[in-house]
Design goal:
The complex is a heterodimer of chains A (146) and B (257). Chain A has 146 residues and is mainly alpha-helical. Chain A has helices at residues 4-20, 26-46, 52-74, 79-86, 92-103, 107-145. The chains are: A mainly alpha (146), B mainly alpha (257).
Chain lengths: 146, 257
């Protein structure tokens, strides 16, 4: 599977999105890079024959680690990078197919896709939670040492 | 030390942060840090997505408090980042209160990108998301058109003061209509890819992220209300696009989807 073209698309889409969020200066490029990175990790983990939610989880962990590092380096709120980074991972496709199935009157299919969409959203959220809780622990010990 | 003015300025700072998409725990922390930097030790603040309550006790035991109601929320991460810098600066240097006020006003009147650039980039964003989810180049151009439409629509409706759920429903409906019309006229190829890519503009990514971060920071009220908000926005989008889809299927048949 081609890894780089989709990551590039994701990069450009996030770059344009950071203008909508009114991010300025160097942060525009850094947050867009996070968007590319998240999709790269998603496709890359799918190569190893793992389930879809797990791939989303790995991608969100990767992007959360990147964002925490960048927030320390650039001395600005971590949300700037996280929000842009996880944008491509938001399960818009799952939401669409759930809506379509319920419009067609196919209850079983819509519940099925709806549940898997929620699982993916949960996996992304758990990835972000994990990394930011670990960061809190690390900063706590770092401050204590000082 | 004019504590009355300090209360006004810190809650003003909190207001700017909360209106522009900061997490509630960040707002609470920033306000408390600002007060501590001016030598006030007893500060308590309670922030929810719709309001700020701050109360300061001075050395004599006198209590100063203020309630600020937040009615409009939008996303402007540049202001959040600048206020973060300002709070860092206040903690490190000794800035007089009137200069602090000037800084806050400068941040509030901060520069935004030109409307045309914003409309253009929402088109680009929708187009590239469509490519990312597997659309081809015909779909790319349709999505760009939808991106322009969504941005123009939501800017106009925002000016009139419509609530965000209605804006999202209208956005979802417009997206589905253009996508369905384009595929039935054979200009676009994949309705699903066009709709998914374009709806990324409306999907509440910021609200979900803030909900998660608020919940783990222990702000349960703010966390749950933001989760509900994200759900309602998602439902609004689904209702808007679902309505158009069901009308389309009942009048033109589902063959083109």
């Amino acid at each position: 599977m081609n890894l780089f073209m989709p990551s590039f698309y994701s990069f450009v889409a996030t770059l344009a999105f950071s203008v909508l969020f009114n991010i300025k200066g160097k942060n525009v490029w850094l947050s867009a890079f996070g968007g590319g990175l998240s999709w790269f990790f998603y496709i890359f983990s799918l190569e190893f024959n793992i389930s879809e939610p797990l791939a989303f989880f790995y991608a969100s962990v990767a992007v959360a680690i990147y964002s925490e590092i960048m927030a320390r380096v650039r001395k600005c709120p971590v949300t700037i990078f996280i929000i842009c980074g996880i944008l491509p991972l938001v399960p818009g496709g799952g939401m669409y197919y759930t809506m379509l199935a319920s419009v067609e009157g196919n209850v079983t299919k819509s519940l099925n896709t709806g549940l898997s969409t929620l699982t993916i959203a949960g996996a992304v959220a758990v990835g972000v939670i994990l990394v930011s809780s670990l960061t809190r622990l690390i900063t706590f010990y770092y401050n204590k040492k000082k | 030390m004019d504590i009355n003015k300090l209360v006004h300025l810190t809650s003003f700072a909190g207001e700017i942060m909360l209106e522009n998409g900061a997490e509630t725990y960040r707002v609470e922390e920033t306000m408390e840090r600002m007060c501590n930097a001016y030598g006030v030790q007893k500060v308590d603040s309670f922030v929810t997505p719709t309001g700020i309550i701050i109360s300061i006790t001075d050395i004599d035991g006198k209590i100063y408090s203020k309630v600020t109601r937040i009615k409009h929320r939008k996303v402007d991460l540049d202001r959040v980042s600048k206020l973060n810098d300002l709070s860092r600066q206040i903690c490190n240097e000794n800035i007089p209160l009137n200069i602090f006020e000037d800084y806050l006003i400068t941040i509030k009147n901060g520069h935004e990108y030109e409307p045309n650039l914003v409309i253009f980039s929402s088109g680009i964003s929708a187009g590239f998301f469509t490519l990312l989810f597997g659309g081809d180049f015909k779909d790319f151009f349709i999505s760009m058109l939808i991106g322009f439409t969504i941005q123009v629509l939501s800017r106009t409706l925002n000016k009139i003061g419509t609530n965000s759920f209605f804006i999202n429903a209208i956005g979802g409906a417009a997206t589905s209509f253009i996508a369905l019309a384009s595929t039935s006229l054979h200009i676009g190829n994949n309705t699903d890819k066009i709709v998914i890519g374009s709806l990324m503009l409306l999907v509440p990514g910021l609200t979900i992220t803030n909900a998660v971060r608020d919940t783990i920071a222990g702000d349960l009220v703010a966390g749950t209300s933001r989760i509900i908000e994200a759900f309602l926005i998602a439902i609004a989008i689904a209702v808007g696009s679902g309505l158009v889809f069901s009308f389309w299927i009942s009048y033109f048949g589902g063959g083109s989807i």
